[in-house]
Amino acid sequence: MTSHTPDFWSKINEDFQNKLTQSWGQALQAFQTMDLGGIVPSDASSAKAAQPQLKFEQEKLQKLQMQYLEEASALWNGGLSGKPELKDRRFSTEAWTSNPVASFTAATYLLNSRTLMGLANAVDADEQTLNRIRFAVEQWVAATAPSNFLAFNADAQKKAIETQGESLAKGLHNLMHDLKQGHVSMTDESQFEVGKNVATTEGAVVYENAYFQLIEYKPLTAKVYENPFLLVPPCINKFYILDLQPNNSFIRYAVSQGHRTFVVSWRNPDESMGQKSWDDYIENGPIQAIETVRDLTGAKEINGLGFCVGGTMLSNALAVLAARGEKPVASATFLTTLIDFTDTGILDVFIDENFVKFREMQMGQGGLLKGQDLASTFSFLRPNDLVWNYVVGNYLKGESPPPFDLLYWNSDSTNLPGPFYAWYLRNTYLENRLVKPGEATVCGERIDFRKVKLPVYIYGSREDHIVPIGGAYASTQYLPGQKRFVMGASGHIAGVINAPSAHKRSHWLREDAKFPADVNEWIQGAKELPGSWWTDWSGWLKKHAGKQIAAPKTYGKGARFKTIEAAPGRYVKARA
Hints:
The chain is of the alpha/beta class.
């Protein structure tokens, strides 16, 4: 065995440091001029506009370089005999930590990932450009993880050996199945059937038009409140997120609280609806549903609830009705809803004038936005959790994902008419016209939320990545009636679907009726309460529900609103 002097190892280390410094400079130059695929805006007036070179905050850059050189040297000096700390669940198993080559590969990847994200954060640019760069780098970093490739995934290799190749054969079978169905399986979809073990609350379809079916639910109490209750879910998803299972069904909960409950079940658009616009949907959707529920029940006023885009649509319907001098709604609840589109979170990375013009040219005059395209976009907002996690499990390890009702719903996507989608992009995300009095015209009426004078209950989820808590809270600044705002824990879906019986998560309230402009100021004065916000909402809604009357014995009303079919109806069963 040849021995080497300390000078030899010093020379090796010096050469390595020089190589690192040289590599850092090359990487930085590549990052500065990298093609971000249109994520970073450029001059749209010239087809030959040069990609702008990124500039960095020098203090952040120098700190990042020193940190990278220090960590890379420590990793190199440890070599394959070292045991790098892998604080990432993708590399947390024994197969990774006990394999020197695998653990070194993972550690190198994690170091480079942190450095790339650090470079993205060090760019000297406006916030929107920064967000776009971060998003692009995050997608690249997530896609290039060694865990995503059989040649580097120690877990998958170990399982292939243990199963004598059976896991690889099963993975190939899973891949062919998903290619055939058109999307990555997040759950065992064969275990679910709409109307059989999801969307099972008893009811009947009592009205339908080309846009939606109206479901009336069977009362669970001897008496109901005289003001019926109408839920408007988003038309970009199916309504049964509100009715997954009996123990977490928001619809069943509302019925159990004594409300005569109706739900809009949107039709999944096909090519015949490719010309339908935002105006078509507002007039023939929530406005028609409000009128139908009033006609069917004989009630002067109803209570309404809108969830996500359904809340935006309900707000528009209320503004249109107010402009027409009509006030048929006693109170409105908005769950994770954007009215003011100033704070749209990560979705802002997609929206600029060029993107909106492209969509308008592509489908503004007709056509469909395919449901799977929209679903894929939302999945890539959380690429490790909602994309690569299933690629690794399904294909590299040959595992079948367990049955999970929420993920089944998430995969049951819906189409959108092109003109509807194009109008929505421009007037909300791009130009934020809804909160500018008179700027947006809907159904022939100029929208002015100052005229929407009714009590409102506004809910936002603290960790929501689709409707950020600041965006949900912003509605308090534009709706002039009595307001109650509540913040729930968790995200866009888990925060909303949080039944009291689960005894999970918290919610925050403040009782001083103050709504400062900044949501963080509101949070500072709020009190954390354990458990679901549903009970608080139920108590609030009862104050606006009128007196109690005998529950109806039958669905609908006479020949005009007779039962068409049992809930959940056929519209919700149409696959995209």
